[in-house]
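Input structure tokens:
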């Protein structure tokens, strides 16, 4: 179901894409740099993926 401007399925796609990117960076020897660069973005995506019922607790 839609909540605001995004759909849960879209957020899950974004999470999968970011995971692939971080895995690629790890393989290229840039894991720490990628983790640092994407830290806030990953946090925001995690919040968006959280069901609304859990956010209100």
């Amino acid at each position: 179901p839609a909540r605001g401007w995004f759909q849960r399925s879209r957020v899950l796609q974004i999470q999968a894409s970011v995971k692939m990117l971080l895995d690629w960076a790890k393989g290229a020897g840039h894991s720490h740099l990628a983790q640092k660069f994407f830290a806030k973005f990953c946090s925001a995506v995690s919040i968006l993926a959280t069901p609304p019922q859990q956010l209100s607790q």
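The first helix runs from residue 8 to 27. Residues 2-49 form one domain.
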